[in-house]
Design brief:
heterotrimer, A mainly alpha (413), B mainly alpha (323), C alpha/beta (510), A: 413 residues, mainly alpha, ABC transporter involved in vitamin B12 uptake, BtuC, 14 helices, globular, B: 323 residues, 12 helices
Chain lengths: 413, 323, 510
């Protein structure tokens, strides 16, 4: 062993606790990326002849400055919380569930069916059953890529994207045939939908307790979403399943060596993710509209991915990220009414925000890795993975960690 | 005319073949260089709105008339697609962002950006005025004279259909007979080996991704101007994802892609025309639309042959990892 | 032992001179004032143990690392080799142990990539050129074959041809025969002889003494970054080479407890699989430490993984106290009483992103002691365990809440050790347990392993470090190319064990 001399005691040089470094680092990275996004956004605002400060503060006021505004914002955030949680749960386990999009569509169909079929049940029980069927629908749709992945190794990115496409057609079929609303007027241009659910199937508005207009449809789904976030946090941090999931997602080899079954863990994650995805559409059909129509709100699954990354795939972060997204989305209306800037600016800003978050995270991750390499060296020993290994290929310490061309196969956090 | 229905269905399918094939070729260049691109749908969307604008702008506003007006319109759509794909390129190549995440962002932003541009171009957020200019349609020689109504399948097609059909030749040639193609493919199969031989991997990957934007953008422009006649929000109908499916099924091979692009084009065409045909009338339209997706899943699950992505791109398909 | 005097086998002036080359990495001196001379038309073997610095030295020559000291002289002129491109321009090429070939491409495409000779590919002309090149050195390879379909030996030929195609005169081969079958090795040697006849220079990095004696014209021996000898096959023997390579004073000896050795706890018979394991037989008894000595790459990893359940062997039996455990899932094998110190603590040991306390319970996290029936982790108990482990094994960390990645390698290993030994295993499988550790940590780990022996447990120690083998083992076996090639007592001199590790079959009954 060609080590040099006696090593210093293995205490690390700096006196900052590691968790703080991680958390602080994340916070700084997040704020930095928010700053960058806002900065780039202001360029566009200026092009429209408006003042960035004025525009941004108008958005803030519109979304958070009044009870109504907050109501709308939270109402937008609610389904996004479910969606992002669904993505994050899988992500922690090293899986990419892009299929939330399709899972919530299927869930809306199963929920609609339940709402119409079990109509005879009393109110609260009916709602419970409908939500249950929503979660079941999502779980079934998520189980497909899960099983395929575990049994055949099929890439879940591809299978979930395909299943999204199938789900769109499935929903279209459902409201065209089995669930088509009775007494539909004849003709091609009818807005297709299911029958209206009876009132007792709907999820009650809570806005009126807070002075929020009923138009915002702020329902107690919000509480359910926050509860879900807490449950997911608990699941990931305090249960065996969460523990195994994180181990598999972070270091599958070590997990396996520790006796964890990778396939079983992955399947469980898909199921939980599917259940969460199932609730994404409930705001729409049980609070906003009271039926499932062909003009259902789409892209909530993809937006969930964006929110998940904004929130660093952390349940608490996701709640805040969803609210931030809601603030921005609500800002579309504010922009339209109060400024010359078109409402589409918002989604461009959101896009810039996601990209800057993800890029900043990549940069931060690599800095951290480089610093850890330095520390290990300073402590008197260098891990063999970074030291010149007699039998390894054309890689050396200078190139370690700069994995030049592999597409980053971690998905960022 | 006994075969008119089928003929018309084929005619429609050729049009959708064009869209799917062009987008698919774009995806092919990107993925074979090693960058997964699930943002094809978004790139097409940008192509639709800018292509519709370009066609009008060059033909009417600048007064270039036929055929240069529509051609420049198509090229404009391609250019805008290319620029938009630049975002994906910079994010994934220079910043090593996960390819899937970047693709999702591309898709999300495209929708809003399209509305944004639509406002700027047409003064309306979700569509442009119908009846935009397009290339003069033609009949394919010889084939359009087939008897029993079959000839109908090859009549009244946009010249771009022919362009797409012939595209396989230059694409195959470039990939297999040019140094550029060899190097591009090696970036996708083994970037380490490529680099060890002194070839710049980022350089070729940038080119691959930008090309995917150009092709998908052109395809979208074609859809908006040549097929439908105007821009309308949502008119891409998931065709970007269907192109991805066709690309995967074809094993990233431009020749096989022709078959799958046409097959899926046909699947799109059936509900539009063949509803009364024997077996098909038993299946609701919506189920027919599912066919491309179902077939792809079955294929990659290994039930029918093995699908093999370019090795470096395949890693990204294996899904994200890490906490 | 003779330090090289530069007089080559054919008397011509040296083509390449490495003068006082030094190369340091953080904490490690890989090359320490190394002098080496290469002549035209010779096969020059560079031998030494793992970590001796052979690959590093050649990578410096190939431009992959800058040297920290010394200079490189090529054809009489001092040069700076800043990158592999510079090296190739100077006529120096290197074939690494892990090939970099594009699998779906043909042999020809792989060879011409980057040197295509124009923007259009003339496939036929290229194929012709490759065929001619191959013929001229008697390389049997089909230019149109797809690399994916090639055998390892053929792939290697492609890598060599890649270098030759670019006109290299000095070819560095890093452990070329590590992946070849004996007949492929024969073919390779034929090729190398042809290259030598044509005036090329081959640098042959290896630890396989048989082959070195067969093919080399001159041999340079490195040990711990220094040249310890330069000689010729005619002037030396395998035994002498082995001594040069491995002989050194043992770092320190620990008191080995006297324990009565009991019945075999582990019985392995005919374990085989995947070409890396070719029929292994061994026994480990209670209270005994069996040292498996061998250079890495001879089946150690596969053996360890088979024992813990990470790998299902193709054939053979593994019996733990009479129960057959081959092919059982990891969790069951662990429950049966096997603990595992992995070779790679990042890939098979710790989850770096998790905290110390989370890592300390990996493998036992589903025990009733640490998680409730509903699956909720009993954090208090886990943390208690973690604190105890950290204290007992002196794991230096700020708290048990830090992530494992912040620990130094030594402390990471201690954590793994603590975790595994806490389970009171019947059998401890320890693979390269002190790799990358500083001396203090090594001593600690050794003490703990000896404690296991004192407690009457069975220990299978797999190590490439002879120091370690000597310090701990009650019995020693050597592993070479997937087979046990010899059994020794710890009194056996290093040359004999070294020879067993390096290919010569020796038997000495304990």
């Amino acid at each position: 062993m060609a080590t040099e001399g006696m090593a210093a005691p293995a205490r690390l040089a700096r006196a900052r606790p590691a968790w703080l470094e991680g958390f602080l680092g994340q916070l700084i990275a997040l704020l930095a990326s928010l700053g960058i996004a806002l900065l780039l956004g202001s360029l566009l605002i200026v092009a429209y002849g408006e003042s960035p400060v004025a525009v941004y503060s108008a958005i803030l006021k519109g979304s958070l400055g009044s009870a109504d505004g907050i109501g709308y914002t939270l109402s937008i955030a609610t389904p996004l919380i479910f969606s992002a949680l669904a993505v994050a749960v899988c992500f922690k386990g090293g899986l990419f569930n892009i299929g939330v999009e399709g899972q919530y569509l299927v869930a809306m169909v199963t929920a609609a069916w339940a709402a119409l079929t079990f109509d005879a049940l009393p109110g609260p029980l009916l709602v419970f059953v409908v939500l249950l069927f929503a979660m079941l629908g999502g779980m079934v749709w998520a189980a497909i890529p899960g099983i395929l992945k575990v049994k055949t190794g099929a890439h879940e990115v591809v299978t979930t994207i395909m299943l999204n496409g199938i789900a769109v057609s499935l929903l279209a079929w459902a409201i065209n045939f089995p669930l088509k609303f009775t007494n539909a007027p004849p003709g091609q241009n009818v807005d297709l939908r299911t029958d209206l659910f009876s009132d007792k199937a709907l999820i009650g508005d809570i806005g009126h307790y807070f002075g929020v207009t009923p138009g915002a449809h702020l329902s107690w789904l919000l509480f359910l979403a926050i509860a879900a976030a807490i449950v997911v946090w608990f699941l990931l941090r305090r249960t065996r399943l969460g523990y195994e999931a994180r181990a598999v997602g972070s270091s599958p080899g070590s997990a396996k060596a520790g006796g964890v079954s990778i396939g079983a863990t992955q399947l469980r994650l898909f199921l939980i993710s599917g259940a969460l995805a199932g609730l994404v559409g409930m705001q729409e059909i049980l609070a906003d509209k009271g039926y499932l129509g062909q003009n259902y709100v789409a892209t909530l699954g993809f937006t969930g991915i964006a929110v998940a990354f904004l929130g660093q795939n952390n349940p608490i972060g996701i709640v805040f990220a969803a609210i931030l997204w809601g603030v921005l989305s609500r800002g579309e209306v504010t922009l339209q009414i109060q400024t010359e800037v078109p409402r589409e600016f918002i989604i461009i800003l959101q896009g810039i925000l996601i990209l800057s978050v993800v890029i900043t995270y990549q940069i931060a991750k690599r800095r951290l890795a480089a610093r850890q390499l330095q520390r290990a060296g300073a402590a008197g020993e260098l891990e063999d993975s970074a030291a010149p290994d007699e039998s390894s290929g054309p890689r050396g310490p200078e190139t370690a960690g700069s994995d030049a061309f592999e597409p980053a196969d971690e998905g960022g956090r | 005319m006994p075969f008119t229905d089928i003929a018309v269905a084929i005619q429609i399918s050729l049009t959708y073949f064009t869209i799917i094939y062009l987008t698919g070729i774009g995806g092919l260049f990107s993925e074979r260089s090693g960058i997964v691109n699930i943002g094809l749908e978004g790139l097409m969307i940008i192509g639709t709105v800018t292509g519709a604008f370009g066609a009008r702008f060059f033909t009417d506003t600048l007064g270039l008339g036929q055929p240069w007006g529509p051609i420049l319109g198509l090229l404009f759509g391609a250019l805008c697609g290319l620029l938009f794909a630049g975002i994906h390129a910079v994010a994934t190549i220079s910043f090593r962002v996960d390819h899937i995440v970047s693709g999702v962002v591309i898709n999300l932003v495209a929708i809003g950006l399209a509305r944004f541009l639509s406002q700027a171009f047409f003064g309306q957020a979700t569509q442009s005025d119908p009846g935009g200019p397009h290339l003069a349609i033609l009949n394919i020689p010889l084939l359009s004279s087939l008897p029993s109504g079959l000839g109908r399948a090859f009549q009244e097609l946009s010249p771009i259909v022919i362009v797409a059909a012939l595209m396989v030749f230059p694409v195959w040639y470039v990939l297999n007979r040019l140094r550029w193609g060899l190097r591009l493919r090696s970036c996708g199969e083994n970037p380490e080996a490529t680099r060890s031989l002194g070839v710049s991997v980022p350089l070729y990957r940038y080119q691959g991704v930008l090309l995917s934007g150009a092709f998908a953008g052109m395809s979208g422009a074609f859809l908006a101007s040549e097929v439908i006649g105007n821009w309308r929000e949502g008119q891409t109908l998931g065709l970007g994802f269907i192109s991805l499916a066709a690309l995967i099924l074809s094993n990233w091979n431009p020749v096989r892609l022709m078959f799958f692009a046409w097959l899926f084009g046909f699947a799109v065409a059936i509900p539009l025309r063949l509803n009364d045909a024997p077996v098909i009338s038993l299946l609701p339209d919506q189920f027919i639309r599912m066919i491309p997706y179902v077939v792809t899943i079955v294929a990659i699950a290994g039930f029918v042959g093995r699908v093999r992505p370019p090795a470096a791109a395949g890693k990204a398909y294996e899904g994200g990892g890490g906490t | 032992m003779r330090i090289g005097d530069g007089a080559g086998s054919n008397g011509s002036p040296p083509l390449v001179v490495l003068e006082h080359i030094s190369k340091r990495f953080p904490g490690v001196v890989a090359n320490d004032e190394v002098d080496l001379q290469l002549r035209a038309g010779e096969v020059h073997a560079l031998i030494g143990e793992n970590g001796a610095g052979k690959s590093t030295l050649m990578r410096v020559l190939y431009g992959m690392y800058p040297a920290d000291g010394g200079r490189i002289v090529v054809r009489g002129e001092e040069v700076k080799v800043a990158s592999p491109r510079d090296a190739i321009a100077l006529g120096i090429g290197m074939v690494h142990q892990h090939f970099v070939l594009v699998d779906p491409f043909t042999v020809t495409e792989n060879i011409i990539l980057g040197e295509e000779g124009g923007s259009r590919l003339d496939v036929d002309a290229a194929r012709q050129r490759v065929a001619e090149l191959a013929d001229s050195y008697a390389f049997r390879v089909d230019p149109s074959a797809v690399v994916e379909d090639l055998s390892v030996g053929e792939e290697q030929r492609v890598e060599i041809l890649k270098a030759l195609y670019r006109g290299v005169e000095i070819l560095i081969l890093d452990e070329p025969t590590a992946v070849l079958t004996p007949s492929e090795t024969k073919d390779l040697f034929g090729n190398l002889r042809k290259l030598r006849e044509a005036g090329r220079t081959i640098v042959f990095i290896s630890h396989k003494l048989d082959e070195v004696m067969e093919i080399a014209d001159r041999i340079t021996v490195l040990r711990r970054g220094r040249v310890v000898g330069e000689t010729r096959p005619a002037d030396t023997s395998k035994a002498k080479l082995a001594e040069m390579m491995v002989g050194r004073p043992v770092l320190f000896r620990l008191e080995k407890p006297t324990v009565e050795i009991g019945e075999p706890v582990l019985r392995v018979r005919d374990l085989a699989g995947e070409g890396k394991l070719n029929g292994i037989d061994l026994d480990v008894r209670a209270g005994e430490i069996l040292g498996v000595a061998g250079v890495e790459g001879n089946g150690q990893r596969e053996l360890a993984e088979s024992l813990i359940g990470l790998r299902v062997p193709a054939s053979g039996t593994i019996q733990l106290d009479g129960t057959s455990i081959a092919g059982m899932p990891v969790a069951d094998i662990r429950n049966a009483g096997v603990a595992y110190i992995p070779e790679d603590r990042h890939d098979q040991g710790l989850v770096l992103n998790m905290t110390l306390w989370e890592n300390s319970v990996l493998g036992r996290h589903d025990d009733a002691e640490f998680s409730s029936k509903l699956g909720v982790l009993l954090i208090r108990r886990i943390k208690d365990l973690a604190e105890r482990l950290v204290r007992l094994f002196d794991v230096r960390a700020r708290s048990i809440d830090v992530t494992a990645s912040t620990l130094s390698g030594g402390n990471q290993q201690k954590l793994i050790l603590a975790r595994e030994l806490e389970t009171d295993p019947k059998l401890l499988v320890a693979a390269q347990p002190t790799r990358g550790l500083d001396v203090g940590a090594i001593e600690f780990v050794w003490k703990e392993i000896l404690e296991q022996k004192a407690a009457g447990r069975a220990v299978l120690l797999i190590s490439a470090e002879l120091d370690e083998i000597y310090a701990l083992s009650d019995r020693i076996v050597t592993l070479y190319e997937g087979k046990i090639t010899g059994e020794f007592s710890p009194d056996a001199p290093p040359e004999r064990i070294g020879a067993g590790m390096l290919g010569g079959a020796e038997q000495e009954v304990a």
